[in-house]
Protein 1
Amino acid sequence: MNDSVHIIAVDRQFNEEEKQVAQQASLRLVESKIAEDGVAIIVHKQNPLSSITPESVHQIITKAAVEWSQLAESHWSGPIDFVLTGRNSGMQELLQKKIFHASKLLEPNTVMNSQRDVIQYVSEHPQSVGCVAASLLADENMKVKMLPVLTKSPDGTEKAYFPKQQEIFESLYPFHFSLYLYTAEAQSDSSLGFS
């Protein structure tokens, strides 16, 4: 807003509050969708789950299930430690507003500062489950287990999909989202070149 930033890369569209601030500052922004990513569901390597359904993920993030034994596909017991980034994070807004259309704010058991912190925490706590951008896991030496999501394939059978490029591109993986660039309408040469 003070002209020190010329371009913003973000994992969600601006929310109404952010759009209002830009409008009040008479800042005309150009939004460009640049990529697609997936929300990876991660658990500790000791977790016996081999896959998860979208319904079970919804139960976890809305706290309808607070014990592992409450999930149909789980063969484990103990409390679910749902781990997520903070309230104004892109991941929390994506899960609440775009993917699950939850009416209430999400209330994770454990809140971390960054998605990398979520990965680290889940790798150290066996009862935990987290949601992070799948693109972050390429850098990790799989300190955690990524769960494929069971959903209907194009031929009508149930199949487990990972958030891989092809599955995201073909909309087979259910939890995917767009990445955006925002630039000021009167953008600098560097931001224009980057975008």
Protein 2
Amino acid sequence: RLLTLPHFTPPLWPRNITDSAGVILGLRTGTTRGEILKSIMESATFYFVDSMESLRRMGIATTGFIATGGGAKSDAWLQIKADIFGVPFTRPRVPEGSLLGAAMLAGIGTGVFSSAREAVDRFVSVDKVFSPDLARHSVYREKMALFREVFPATREILKRL
């Protein structure tokens, strides 16, 4: 029931917008903190949908994602992402990719592993796959259309604030 324009800091991507601010639409006295958090997570994910659609127009298909970093720790957010994109999100057993990659390179460099393949086989595995719920994906497609209207509809008011 909520829709968030997550411009709590000026967005630099997909374009630099310095004259905006965060907006949460649909708040009611009964709105819970969880609903607000979920709306922020959904809207932050909506930004990435447009990027992926740009890649599709260039002929680059995306059939799934590997989640890394701190956001990969949230089952709820990974399920939201899978539902919004309509493709699976996979969390590796070790989601800190940079740290794991550095450790594997150190192991290769010091002879602990004879090859990158050996290091990958030893350390890279799947923890969990988040498959999209197609009914929720359909609802999110409608919500995404509304999300695309929020900034143009509020831009002049936010400038004046």
Protein 3
Amino acid sequence: MLKVHEIFASIQGESSHAGWPCGFLRLSGCNLACRWCDTRHAGDSYAEMTVADAAAALAGLGLPLVEVTGGEPLLAPQTPELVSRLCDLDLTVLVETNGSFDIAVLDPRATAVVDVKCPGSGMEQRNDYGNLERLRPRDEVKFVLADRDDYDFALEIAAQIWRTHIVHFSPVAATLGPARLAAWMVADRV
């Protein structure tokens, strides 16, 4: 059984699909404790659902773009089956993962949005760096940045993949203003 925290429709706020209407299925639980986590509320609150029921509920929102997220969706051993069922329904499927689990378990028709944890998160040592080699052509990588040290860390890693994959830099609002991040990126011609 899947531990489903919530299923809802909204606008995609991250990834190359930002701005598109999207159905979200948020699973409960995470194996990390990032300093600026914005989904701690999903930790222990959930309803148990079968994979078939969860897929039907998400598809029932009637949106062609869906995302499986968390917490950490790859904590649930049923997530690969859920993702494949959604792909079988001809949906565009995103899986947003914290990057600490092997993404090779995901259906190649889905897009993994892999977070690489920067030092400011307090979770950098939990990255599965093998995921950078496992990226499929449609997969994307995200860095959440708290400060200049995180930015420099992200630049070093992104240099390995940004010619072949979409890379996102996302500032932590409380510590790094978007204008400051943009200024660094423009100065560095990123």
